């Protein structure tokens, strides 16, 4: 989902009344970022509070390449990483993930091995359907065991776009909240639904209800679900004791537009890129009785801050034996403070850009290669900024492209290298970047090796269901990451 | 000002709390249009309820060219046109225009000859400063007589961007409202300020207060002024008896970006074009106690509807001896109805495009000429859609380009000519266009002839001020309209 997909963020069909209401009752973050313009690294960053380059969710197979966790990925979240639910457990929290895990699907990466107590959802994206010979369909798990596979047991009709998965995920969340409220236990719910990711789906009730087509139908179903979740908290009388945060894992995938792709509002390009369209996210904090209604914050925020903020809410300290990139947003949310901190825009192993205040400096520019572009893969459809949306990887380390995101949110007008404004801002940002790089210890890259043998052929529980498949022989190879 | 310039419409710095509050208390129109992507024709359309091609505010000097009323224009609003204030007079209204008139500056076009009772403002744009030999500075009028000139008596500091004009215009409006309330007289106030038009200015108090630079400062001053106007109505106890509508005369002028140009949100191109960025406008209706708070309407609306709606509010009928293009929006505003009507996108003498429902058909495409483009004049900076943002005038009459503005608000993905959806939608829209053209009687074009002699050399009142200038000899010529 993109920054521009919500009514509160200016989507022209304004079909998200519940999310807009959530914003009106809570606080809207206008300058909130993911840690990487792709799903897996973004989610790894959220749960560890650390940049993907630290937690291992990146590749060194190519320079500045996006990588994630397809079925043949060998790596996943390392045991050495401390995940938010692992830490919350110490404060008595019960942790549930509903939806897409995406931090590795091999047994050692199972979410219940990494702090979650419950899981209903899938380890990978809902791609498919596969014929079970080249690739198996993605399994859906309930806790330790798979309970079926997408397309086979959990239907997704690619022709009509119908699937009731978001409804299943909603019900899981409602039930979990009810259970926790009944037992008076504190809880962390990570509602990581995979709707609006292509192939886009919505349940029957929502199909055809949006001005925006199937993608809009999916957004409307999410909006409706969030409304039901918030209402549920209110009806159970725990809304004033429950902190809720809504955001996305990367910008809208314009490659899937117009039928399956969303909106990044006035920003440049989309998912896969380190332009604003790829990394700036819709974000809303909600906590009635604590967050002043109708607040708007220009705090530079990150999904990694949800790690630190959640720990703070639980009265816990972040781990002190490692670098944490997230910051505690509670002073921002509760007291309207602004914390001075940079935003680092990574693509794979490369720091492409950095933002401080309203200035953003690009040290590298790249949309995608000419080769990919000529195949019709376009991360910036209809947009073209000379020297900025480049199709070759362009280095600007010694003379970064600088944009003022207030006057120029669309990153169309690089500031003159000769201007005093440029000198001052670049000096400041480059200082922060040097400091960052000097102390950076990259983690072991987890997304370098792929192997058909590790696919979801026989996930735990497949025996009971008679759904075990025979894996091919192991043939590890370098994963190919063209973007 | 553009569609995307208000927080409520998704401007990322969200600095318009008063307009956003106005929207929260009133009704937001998301699909509201001007009648032409340029100032003079748009304002003529608003005040006559008629398309510029009918009321004469267009040129035939070139095909599909934008024209307006610079100082050397000979034409202006014809006497045969009935303006909103002329009609409102019959219902006892006192009418005031504050700000830019722009319907012709020669004596016969004076607003007090066309229904207004009071005027404080200028006949033309606040361009300048001029040295009074080639061109005089634009006069500012109080009612019949000029009271000074821009830059000379009404300062605009082009270096700092400081000018207190919006404050003067605000005070005029507040005083007029107070006077009318005191005398219990109904009133029509046309608050047609010229801020955010380049050269952009703001008063000292607002300079440097926006994240967006000088343009944002100007927006913030307008926002603050609107807030004060609404508060004034409330304090006088007449807010429930006063209908207020906020909108703009064309899309943001991206040619002036990033320092002096605004935002058209997710839409294509800007002012001067018939893409959405040129003609879709921010629009808010406000009338406490009558309009349900927080309403959102997808009614296709037009500035021309303000003519018909205002008449309706005054209990008057629109003239029956001529074609009126505006419709009465009261059923939409008060009862949430949707009225089926097309939107026609004109550029000069040509119907470039038409919208019905969510479909928009382009019969002609043009951004601007290669010649102008090569001079750096760009109405679509950073945007380029092959075959759509063309630099030659491309005719598509027999096979219009069709866009679905719900799925594709940015007009990036023309529908396939072969699709059933295309056939159905084009048949419908082209039928409406044929019907429109068959009955269209174009007015005498007013914007064809220019003459240096008609400039504001010696406006009425210049003698008293000692500010009369000698006009050159008359030398009428065809006006040059390159866009």
The level of helicity of chain A is 10-25%
Average pLDDT confidence of chain A is 97
Q: Sheet bearing the most strands of chain A, described?
A: 5 strands, mixed
Most extensive interface between two protein chains, with residue counts: A-B, 44 and 44 residues
Oligomeric state of the chains? homodimer
- Spatial order of the strands in the main sheet of chain A? 6-5-4-3-7
Total separate domains of chain A:
2
Classified by CATH, the class of the largest domain in chain A is: Alpha Beta
Architecture per CATH nomenclature, i.e. the level-2 architecture of the largest domain in chain A? 3-Layer(aba) Sandwich
Cofactor (chains A, B): Ca(2+)
Domain Sulfatase N-terminal (chains A, B): 1-315
Family (chains A, B): Belongs to the sulfatase family.
Pfam family, one (chains A, B): Sulfatase
